[in-house]
C-alpha cells in the first residue's frame, strides 16, 4: 500500500500574529501563524479588507512569532521560534512570494520540552536584541545588528539560566537606547515562594546578560504588556492578574540620566471592571498596545476570558511619572481573543478562540466618562508615595473610583466589522456527502460556543447574483460588454446578439435600458463587438465590419466582404480584428490610432475550407456546425499589438496558429490536432507584472517590474473535453498539453479580465474559471448553474462581475472569492498596479455555507433517511423546474460549565457572529452562553437538513407560490437549514450532556426494506465533570466530587419520521457509565462501555442486551469502525486497535442480509481476532475494507492497520484460542491470537479528530471517468484536524505513480531545506517512523526551488520539467482539484 498525502485546506486556527512593514516601507501588513503555516496579509485601508499575499508551510510547529526593525531601516523582519530547536530570522520577498531565511540559529533539542527555550520570545522595541525562554531554567539572549552590506547579523547566544524556576511570561522593556532590558514573571519551586517580576539587563558593552532586579507580584499575574519608555512614555510594564490590572516600574532615571533601581518601585493598581451576574475571578487573556509616536500618545486594549474588550489608559508626566491608570469597558466580541493587532490607519485585527478572525474599524477610541464599567486609580500626591516593598501594596496615596459593573453590549458601539477571515478551528467532526449534481462536499462541525456552526464546504468559486434576471424575449446567441473608452473603469454598453438581430443596452447608475442610437447595426446578428482604439467601437456581423470612430454615430464606417462571400467568424482585441470569410479567406485589420481608422492590412486566401459561399446564409449561426472559430490574444504589456492568433475549422480537428509579422503579413506557424471537433478557442497571456519597491528607497527609479509571460492556447471540444497548451510567442511552438474532461456538453471558452487579470471562462456542463496562481494554472468550478454564454462585466456595484446568458435571460453575477493583490497607494502613478488572483486563507478555492449553532458542535452523524425529492413541470416551456434533495445530519452540541441565557424555543441561529449596531441581533436573540458551575452542561441534539436545488433559471418563481425557494435565482448554492432539535437539558440539576450518537436503518431487524424505519441512538452522560477542569471555587469543586454524583450513562432511542424528519422519542436505557463510542452493527447497536463492548437490540420498553465482550480493551473504548457486517475494529484510549468478529448463533438464521434483517436473532458471540502491538491513543477510526482500518491518535498521527494477507482468507481457524461466547476473555486478557500489520503511518502536525472516505475535487464520476467503476477506486481518506486543516491520504493505484512520487520526494528531501531548518523526514516521523506515505506537500514545493535546481531534480528523475510538473498537478487535481 502506497499513499499520497496532500493538504486541501491549510490550518486556519491563528495561534500567533504580528504586524509590520515586511515587503515594502510603510506597508501595513500582518503575519499570522497557524500551527505550521505562515500567512502574510496586506491591509488595504481604502477597500477595508485584508489582502492575502502568500503562505508558507514550515514543516514544524510554530511556538512564537515576533518582528524587529533594525535602527535606520524601514522594513521589518520576522523572528520565529519552532519545535525545530532553531531561532529563525525571516524576510518576506514579494517577488518570489515566499519567506527567505536569513539566519537559523540552533538553541536546543527538537520538540516542545519544558527545558528547551522555544515557548517565550521577547524582542527589544529598538530591534537591538531578543530573548527566548523556556518554561524551566533556560534563557538566551541574542544581539541583532547589521554589517557593512546592510545584512542582518545575529550574535552567539548569551545565557542567564536559573534552576528550579518556572517562567510564566516574558516581555521587553522600553528603555530608549540604554542597555536592552527584559521582564519575566517567575516563581521558584519552593512551596511558599511568591511570583516575582524580574528584570534582566543585556550589557552591550560587556556582552553579558544579568539578572538585574526583582519585585513580588500577585500570584494570579499572567499577562504582561510593554509600556512605552524613553521619550515616549514612563516605561515599565502593565501587569494583568485576576480581577486587577497593575502598572509596575522598577527603574528610575538618576541625575546623570542613567536608569537605576527604584528604592520604592512604582506600582499603580486598579480593579478590572466585570460584567453583571458573572462569577468573580475575571482574567485577561490577551492584549495589545497602540503607540502614536507622532502624537506621543498610547493606549492599551485588553480582552477578558468572556470576550469583553477593556481599554486601559495611563496618564503620566515627565516630572512626576504615572499619575493615573484608567480602565473602561469598550466593546464585546463573541469569544475571547487569542491575539490582536491595531493598525495605524484605525483598524483592529482580532483572532478569536473557536471562531473566525475579524477585521474591525475604530469608530472612536474615546469612552464617555459617564459610561458604566470604568475603574480609575489615581496617585493623590506623587511626592507622598510610600510603598511597602515586601507586600507590594500601596498605603493611602492611591484613590480608586469608578462604576465597576457593566452590562454586555448587545451590539458593537465603538467598533465596526468590515471583514472576516474564515476559520474552521476547532474542527471537531466532518462527513462527506454526495450532492445531487454528483459532486462530493464536506459537512463540518466547527467553532466553539457562540462561534460554533455547521459548514458545508464544496470545491468551487463563490458566485453572487447581483440582481433579478433580465428577460430578453428571444434566445440569446452571444453577449459582449464594452467600455466607453480605453480609460474607463466600468462598462457602458451590453451588446446582445440574437438569431437575426442585435440589442444594445446602456448601463446607467441604477438601471439597464435599451438604446437605439449606439451606432451598432441592430438588424444583423453580431459575431463580435468591442471597444477598440482609444474611444472607438467595432462590430462584426455577416455582411461586414462596422467601425464607429470615437463613438460618433455619424462617423461610422463599414467594410464589406467581396460578393458573394459572407463573414463566418471574427475575433478582436483592443487594436486588431481578424475575420474569416465563407470562402475560407482570413482578413486582418489594424487600428490606425493617428487617423482613427480601421485599416485592412492582410488577406490570406484558402486558409480554411469554404463553407458554401454561394449559399444564402442569413440564418442563425448556431444552425451551421461547420463555422470556423478564431481567437486572438490581448496585447501584452509593453507591446503595440498581439503577434499570434489561432484558427480552427469545426469541420475538422485541426488548430493552426498564425503570426502577425512587423509589416502586417500573416505567417502560418504550428498545427495542433485536437482530440475532437473544435467548439471554441481562446488564446491569452496569463503573464502579469510584479511591482515592488527597493528596500531603502521609494523613488520611481527604485521600483522593480518583473514580467512573467505565460501564453496559453485553450481549446474547447464538442464532446466535452478542454485542452490547453503552452505557446512560444516567438516560434509558435506548442507544448505541455493538458486535457480535462468536463462532461458530455460542448465546451465554450472565453477570455475575460476580472480585476484586470486575464482569466479564461470555461462553459460546459458546469462553468469553470482558469486562472494563474503563482507559476501554475488553476482551474476551479463556479458554484452556480450552467450558462451558455458569458462576458466580463464591470460596474460600480460589481467591479469583478460577469454577464451570463441562459436561454433568453441575462444574469449579472459577481465573483465573491476572487481577490487582487494591489500595490501600495503610495507607489508612483506611472507604475501600473498589479492584480493577481489568489485563494483565500482556506488554500484552494472552496466555497462555504453554514448555519449557526447554539453551542459547541462536537459530533456530526449522517442519518440514513430516505431522500425526499420534489419535481415541478412547466408544460409551456417543456422544462423541469427543480428537484430538491434532502440529506439529514445529527449535530451534537454540548458545553461544560455553561448555561443558556434564554429558553431553547427562542433561539435565533442564523445571525452574525459580531453584530453591527444597526443590523445585528441583541444578546437575547443570539443566546450567548453564560459561565456556570462545574458539572453543569448546555447540550442538545440538532437535526440539520442539507438541501440542494437544481432549476431552470428561465422559469419564474410565481409558477410555484408554495415553494420556499426563488426559482429566478441562478445560483446553485447548497445551503444548510436547522430542521428539528432534540432538547436534552431539562433542568440544571440533572447535569446531562450528549456524548455521541449513531444512526441505523436496520435496528430491530424486522419488516421489509420499504417498512424499515430510521432510528437514532444517543449516548447520554449524567453528572460528568471532565478531567482537568479548572475549578476556582472550592465549595463547588468539593460538591462536584461527592460520591453520589458519580457519572452514569443512558441510551436514548428516537425514531425519525420519513417525510418530516421529526424525531419521536421511543425509550431510554440506563447504563452503568457513560459511553463514548456507538456504531450501528448489523440490526443491532454496538456500544463501548468502559472496557467492554456490548450489543443491544431494539425492544418495546428498552434496549435488549444481546451480547457482551468484557475487557475488550485495556482502558476505555473510544472508537468503533464496522467492516463487512460481521467485523468491528475497536479503538482504545491508549492501547491502539483490536479486531473483533461476530459469529452468529449455532442455529440457522432466518436471513442473510447483513444490512437489513440480520443473520441470527437469538445468540451469537464476539471473537477477538487480532490487535496492534504498539501503544496508540486512538481518536477516530474508519474501515477501508474488510481487513483494513485507518485510524488517528491524539498526537497527530494517521496510521493504517491490516490483517495479514495469509490470515484474511482463513475461516474459523483464524479465531485460535481467543473465542468468547457471551462472556469475558480467557483470563481477562484483551489480546487476540494474531497481530495487525502496520501498512502506513504519517504525522500531520495536529490532532486528527475525524476520518472519512471520499474526495474533494468537486468533480462528478462522469467527469473523472470513473462512472461504473468500484467505489473504492474513487475514494481517499479525508481527515480533519483540530486546528481546522483538511487533507487527504490518496491511494497510489499503480506502480508507476508510486515510484514517480517516491523519486520526487527523495529529490526534494535532498534539495529543499525547510525555512526553519527542520528535517522533513524527522517532522513526518515525529512519533512513529514514516511508512509508505509520500508527502505531496513537499513534492509541490518543487516550484519554490530555483530554476537550475528544478532542472537538476527533473534530470535525476529522468523526465522533463513540464512532465514532472504535469504529473504533480494531476495528482492534486485527481483528489482535491
TrEMBL record:
- GO cellular component assignments: spliceosomal complex
The answer to whether the entry has keyword Nucleotide-binding is: no
**Example of a GO biological process term:** mRNA processing
Q: Where in the cell is it found?
A: Nucleus
In alphabetical order, the GO MF annotations are: nucleic acid binding
Q: Identify the residues that the record assigns to the RSE1/DDB1/CPSF1 second beta-propeller domain, covering every copy.
A: 476-812
Q: Which UniProt keywords apply?
A: mRNA processing, mRNA splicing, Nucleus, Spliceosome
> What name is this protein filed under?
Splicing factor 3B subunit 3
Instruction: Name the source organism.
Output: Gracilariopsis chorda
